[in-house]
Amino acid sequence: MKKHLLKILALSLVGTLAFAATGPDTYVQMTYGEVDSLDPAQAYDTASGAVLENIYETLYTYKGESITEYEPVLATSYKISDDGKTYTYKLRHDVLFHSGNRMTCRDVEYSIKRLLVTNPGDSAGWFFAESLIGYDGVNAKDYFGDKITQADKDKYWAAIDNSVKCLDDYTVQFHLIKKDPSFFVKMMYTAGSVLDSKYAIANGEWSGTKKDWFSWAGKDLRSGFLHNHDAGTGAYQLVKWDGKDVYAKRFIGYWDFAHKAQMENIIIKVVDEQATRIQALKAGDADRITVNDRATLETQIRGMANAKVLESDKWLGAGARAVFFNQKIAAKDNKLIGSGKLDGKGIPADFFKDVNVRKAFAYSFNQDAIIKDLYLGKAVPLTMALPPSFLGYDPNIPIYNLDPDKAEAFFKKAYGGKLWDTGFSMTIVYNTGNTIRKAVAEILKENIEALNPKFKISVKAMPWPQFLAAYKNGQLPALVLGWGADYADPDNFIYVFYHSNGYYAKKIGYSNPQMDKLIEEARSITDPKKRAALYSKIGYLAHDDVPVLPLPRPTGWMVLAKNVYTKGAPAGMDVYNNPMRSGSFLWKDIIKK
Amino acid sequence: MLNYIIRRSLQIPMVLFVLSLIIVGLMQLLTPQQRAAAFVKSDKQIEHLDQIIKKYHLDEGFLVQYELWAREVLRGNLGFSRISKEPVTTTIRKRLPASMELALSAFIPIVLVGVWLGTIAATHRDGILDQALRVVAIIGWSLPTFVMAIWLVAWVYGGLGWFGIGRLPNSMLIDLATGHFHRYTGMYTLDGLLNGRWDVFFQALKRLVLPATALVIVVSAGIMRVMRSSMLDELGKDYVRTARAKGLMQKAVIYKHAWRNALIPVITMAGPMLGRMIGGIVVIELIFNFPGLGEWAAKAALQLDMTTLLAFVMLIGLIMASANLLVDIAYVIVDPRIRYE
User: Considering only the top CATH level, what class is B89-167+207-334?
Assistant: First the structure.
């Protein structure tokens, strides 16, 4: 008897079903990125975005795979005034929040005002604030600091109060401080989601009035109610987020009856160990997993019986990476530039100010080697620091690739020939574990040192904190930096990389008045054709000027269980993949066959 | 005895105080910028470094930092964990039961297997069985835990589709998240029984098998070696010879006399081992996707999350001190000659 019991226990423990699937109405994704916050006004990372885009909704959104075509969600139509400064949206009448409250214009007004009031430094609030109230996109507390007066406060609040108005219960109007052709797409970012104002206020969030607005300015929303509660209208509602895994279920009151989601339950599991994710996919416990690198993809996933690898040359994501040439290196206590002079034992702080040096470096860089070694051949070189799917990307602009003769010619021209005679010595640094930064540094070292024995580049690894401090202090002579799109407008990249006031360009001291003029013109007009032409011009100018050297972009992939598809997939593909969606596709479009 | 327990218990706050001083002090060895760097996750956020330093008082001195932390702790607020994005106490309430469940389910078999095999090895000294067990022990001893764990995940779970990873199957997790399931202890096996949910009990137990097996294989070798040598020690002593001379049967000599005394070194070893296991078995937690304290603390250490680290160290300090106390009490039970004044 005892033995029998043991046998039964052992058998039930092992499980009779060898390969348990996740179930026809449950979708399980395993990844390593942890959600940072589920408050739309705080979240500014892909892991959070991938959840938020399903439990909250914006007025308009991207259509299918496109980033230049849009479709209405919580709005039904919109109108831009002739001066380009007023945006009027008509809202749907039939939208329910997960609480059961009905959505009206007050909710839209509350959501955007809350974003502008709180605008914590590490959120996406800055680009909404830039368009709607100015103040450099910074919240009132950080903008004014300790010296803030009552008059400052009143003025700042008035700016917020004027930026969004309800004309009636279902018409909302936004007033921009100046013309901004990207405002419409900015509103599609998850931070532009519409929150259930009644529910939020009832649970201790900002009251929506002038009374307590200032106490919410710059607040870290991770300690608030909406950080881990859902006040959205999305097709899915949050069941639980335990700081790690996310559980959501289909919302039965969802307004879009025609678009009924097939999945009843969604689970996003954080499984840090890649080997475990792969085994879970194999065992049928996961429908989609994150695979970090192409080598694993090729050796372990391809050919797995119940899994599929989807990829496309068009899946280049919405990001760009480039080598930056620092034109104003901080010289104080900086060992990376040696003597700090052009004497063969170092480099001067403005070493990269000479365009010939930048070009010589660009012609010493082997794009093919990066593509072949780092990405196993699956990458596309970029002509400019802009994702190829974006408006204005010009594929005809020439690409810098290894050309020792040209590199030598430019080095000989640099500093009136002095550089070639005296030589130089510098250190390129990468943060430990960053394979791209390391590869770029090593390629430059190898090719440049081969040109002239007096050219010396050392490559050094630094732990992340030290690397960051060195970057922050402007000590790095050359480095690789990346930018991911916040919204699908070329200005989001072009301004950052090339405008003298842009986030990165400013940091490396790049300034070209002609470039600034073109960028400002492109951000002030709305006609896409004219803008595209301007961005192409900018691309050519950036090629001549090489403030930064764009790096090749690897093509993306997705690893799914064999039976997973999405609605709206393009012909010949199993799923659609929109680079502006953190999760590539929406949960409501998932189907299992 | 009671006196002794009270006295020992009073030492615990002192231990915790010193531990907290050490952690805050160690953090001071890094520059404010280096500490702030741990908050920065993407190239875009680098510019926020100064704001971060200001916001979290990273540029303040040792005393100010310690005071800021201590004042909150005395108010019962252990702080907010950047790693789990929730208050530290909430995380501990969720993760400590998971760690305890895993630790206990591995600890009991580890001790049983270790003691059993150690006894066999000692009583068959230098025989084939002893030699064979020695080889097994060396293999177990030298096998890295992660190798064993990955092998079990790949072969038993991925290959055969047995047992599963995580704490419960996905479908059940949704069920529990939406339905009525009272969490009495936070340990799914126990809560399953208390709620009368046999399915939960079985599923939770099923998912403990692989991680516990990995631990038993790797850890019990140590216990076995200690048990063997301590048993041999005892078997060589006079009272054993006397017992044998009286004509006692081998079984009685071993289990009635020598065994209990031989257990003392095993208890000395097992107490802190249990403490450490509750503190988290990082590799096992990571590979079997078992969200316990270890994984949380390891991430906190990598990202220099001082609030989380302090809370974790306090908790482990408490657990280890309690484990040592329990060991001392266990001595008395095993060996009545031991008295605490």
Answer: mainly alpha
